[in-house]
Amino acid sequence: MREYPNFPLVGVGVVVKRGNKILLIKRGRPPLKGIWTVPGGLLKIGESLEQCVQRELDEECGIKVSDLKLIDVFEYIEKDNKDIKYHYIIVEYFAKYKYGALKAQSDAEQARWINLEELDVIVTTEETKALIKKVEM
User: Which domains does the chain show, CATH number per domain?
Assistant: First the structure.
């Protein structure tokens, strides 16, 4: 259960680089519905973190990546007036685009390659901006 969980949920996020651009998706469901973030999702039982990265990129964007590198661990906690509504521990990776035609799928409303300058004009989070800045361009 994603809302009001009994324990934190583990997920992955991935900063994908293609040339001088970064892949972002516009989230199609809560939390952060309508916000541009890096793609990712929840870990399934028996799945490695790296397998989760590949599966989520395939499901959300239709692409494959290579050269996965761990860059951060991020915790997202959202409270409301009742309780903890969301609690995620996100393992963040960097990867290089390998192949595939980019297409928003699954819970991604949109997907696109952006230049770093565009980070200041799209609706995203400060955490997403900070994560992208950790990656050497």
Answer: 9-124 (3.90.79.10)
